[in-house]
Description:
- The complex is a heterodimer.
- By secondary structure, chain A is an alpha+beta fold.
- Chain A has helices at 9-31, 40-62, 100-104, 133-143, 169-173, 177-195, 200-208, 213-244; strands at residues 4-5, 64-67, 71-76, 81-87, 93-97, 107-113, 117-118, 121-122, 126-132.
- Chain A has two domains: 4-143, no CATH class; 167-244.
- Chain A is built from eight helices and nine strands.
- In chain A, the strands form three sheets. In chain A, strands 1-2-3-4 form a four-stranded antiparallel sheet. In chain A, strands 5-6-9 form a three-stranded antiparallel sheet.
- Chain A is flat.
- The two termini of chain A are 35 Å apart.
- Chain B has two domains: 2-57; 60-140, PH-domain like.
- Helices cover 52% and strands 25% of the residues of chain B.
- Chain B has helices at residues 2-25, 30-58, 96-101, 124-140; strands at residues 60-63, 67-72, 78-83, 89-94, 103-109, 117-123.
- In chain B, strands 1-2-3 form a three-stranded antiparallel sheet.
- Chain B is elongated, with a radius of gyration of 21 Å.
- Chain A: InterPro entries: YdbS-like_PH (IPR005182).
Amino acid sequence: MTWQRLDRKVIAVDLVRAAVSLVPTAIAAGVLGLDPGDAWPALVVAVVGVLRAAADLARWATTRYRITPDRVEVRSGLFVRNERWIARDRIRSVGSDARLTHRLFGLRVVTVGAGLTGVAGATAALRIDAVSAATAQRLHEMLDATAIPSEEPDKPTGHLLAQFEPHWVLYNVLSIWVVFAGAGLTWGGYWLGRLFGYDALDHARDLAGGAHTGWLIALGAVGFLLLGCGGLVVGFSSRATGTSG
Amino acid sequence: MLWWTVRDVISAVVPLAAGLVVFAFVESWRPWLGPLLVALAIVDVVHAAVVPSLRYRVHRWEATDDAVYALSGWFVREWRVAPLSRIQTVDATRGPLQRWLGLATVTVTTASASGPVQLVALPDAEATELAARLTAIVGRTAGDAT
């Protein structure tokens, strides 16, 4: 196999990501007519988004990989050139995944594990980000001789140990994470408002003017916990549908 | 060895240059900054003259058909052996400086708890040849299923 490039559609993914990162600025400046200075968080989002897309384009342009009978090789990097060789014999796992923007363009990220350990447990020795779904399937077949060639789910063998129950959501909500989820969502929401020049804290202060402090704290705490519960329920159901579907 | 020299010179010149810029613009700091810069310059010159050749002398490596050996350290000598049957990946990294000098750093990764074995600044062609040879032998050596 000769040297292969990543899929061209990665460029489209990067362009979409860059465009999405410009949306807050466009809304803030175009629709709401804000001064760029007032909507500086939106500008930060735009600049970071565009720079990351550019970096990803550079990665796309410099990455080459090939699979030979005895090893897998990848070359990448613009300033710091990196080459990696993995003997086929040492490959432990081959996997592929796709995030939303990748799926829109029919792309898959292929990860090849070789039993490396990193900070967060096992890390992928190779990450081919990204190739088309068909190429991903071919890579799977090339790298993993025991791979099942079709994407059809297997017929269940063996007996059922446990099955997902929707009422488990109660156990998920009744945990300390409610507080953290609430805090995270409040924080995220506040900055989403700031993105468009809306300071929720000021607004809340105006609303609260004159009310009793004790009531305010109680109300805040209840709202906080409800928000956290909502966040955990959403997270739980998305994970549940993710595993069963 | 040249790579170490250039790297040391760069890492010496950058703070010196920053110091000189401050020296030129902030007058009130001059009385104490001047002697400090002179002392720093002397230390840097001695460092650049002596340390790279010492570094070059203490680093040794060898790759046989059974293992990769790397020896390093000034006072505490560290001798590392990576058996080929345990090698997971072989990397060659070239930074901008190394590319300019035609060098490469080869990293041999095993699942060892004390991290990968690094062979610093090999000649470019030798690094590529070594990596190819290692993976070829690794392909022939049956892994011991670890």
